């Protein structure tokens, strides 16, 4: 048996409360005015006296029992010497008016608390943690409501940890009215902890072995609601089911082992989601870019758990098609093979032409490319929040650079790792970080146009101080290692550009980078931002919470993409206002570039984004 005894000698002091003569409870039969108690006591008194009478007969009974009810309310909060004075006004017409002048008296303090535990729960770390945070301590004013809460907490903890035979041997409060002290005793026998038995899935035609792989604990593990919740989450993360109910079958318990029934509701065989939207400020000419998207999803194609997602997105400048076929490997959620095919048209950088009349370069558009891709990707999620990826991807990209057409082919072999740690599962975590690393390699002997080694690293850190002060920092690094003579053969999608709401605000998406000048076929001097072989971008943002759902922001973004010995950092600053909506943060930021560049005047842009940073 383990005994926890907390003893403290306490000095008994008087209790004083502000008068609230203006607080009344009334109807057409009776008006009650309560004086001499604080808000908490008044609320407790009102709860004990109940609803006001609705007839003359009820009024007599109400007044007859009133003093006993008030004393019960005072004693439940530790005041055993309260004095109640009643002043009744009985006008011939209208409601009677009752004034209650209450003196609570000396508060009863807790002298010591004994928590005694027998059974297997005595060695459970969860019980020790609960003891360390127990909410009633020696020296506290006695509050029977808090005592009942602690009783319920301990019993609830026992049941949630699988001690289904737990019962109180003794639970009592002993009050010494002469000394105004109280002692609390809680004695429980938890019994043995039940184990998780066979898990039966109903409602799904997936292979039983595939379902068994989603059980996140071995058979005969100790029962806990946390394990049941993890099973529910893993099944939900598989995207096979729209409804999940995990039910312990207590009536079939045998020898301390509880079978579990999992009731599954599969998702519809096919779903089609349509979306409408637009981008503002993501093009070099700062125009509105409408977007229409359609996503077709088949969450379960066969009993093996195969699935597919096909997305078609249309916009005037950046249409995209991508289909992904997924095959579960060693685990339906944590280990998947994805087969991808896609076609993407995109725009990068800025193209300019020299205007003789203005004696300056004017924008004529952007570098355009069309990319065809086919690839295999294996993703594995590890227990330490790391997500590993191994890929081989074939790319053929068509683009025009400096008046020359290119269509190189690449076979990229890659490996990547990402870790995300969050302090909570909300859409706006207070603390956390994400780190991402990737390596890709292409070689002529393996089917690529040139030899290319591509390295990338990025990180995001979120930290909140004193609840209202939140800092978000970000860094993005990248390098393409290739021969100087082969740089033109690196397609735009494999080069580095800067600019946009996830890079350097105040500039449009992917418009920043090194440029080249050439004379076009019409004899006019042209300038083109073609992307760099290096990338270095960082950001620091301060956010202040006005309310839990609204915050102000101020940021500085800096960096650029560049080639050898050509690093020219671009800096932007600006304010923002963010709404933490039920579907995630919606952020309105205004970015101001601090200086002009060779290809850009000093810009400013509005950025409207949605989504969490982690």
Average pLDDT metric: 90
Helix fraction? 10-25%
Cα-atom radius of gyration: 35 Å
- What is the number of helical segments per DSSP (H or I, 4+ residues)? 6
* Uncertain residue ranges: 1-22
Our estimate of the beta-strand percent is over 45%
Question: What class do helices, strands and sheet pairing give?
Answer: mainly beta
Q: Main sheet? A: 19 strands, antiparallel
What general form does the structure show? elongated
Say how many strands there are. Answer: 30
Termini separation (Å)? 47 Å
Keywords, separated by commas or semicolons:
disordered N terminus, mainly beta, 30 strands, 4-stranded mixed sheet, 6 helices, single chain, elongated, 614 residues
Question: How would you sum up this structure, described in words?
Answer:
This protein has 614 residues and is mainly beta. The chain is 12% helix and 50% strand. The strands form four sheets. It has a 19-stranded antiparallel β-sheet that branches. Strands 1-6-8-7 form a four-stranded mixed β-sheet, covered by helices on one side. Helix 1 (39-49) packs across helix 2. The two termini are 47 Å apart.
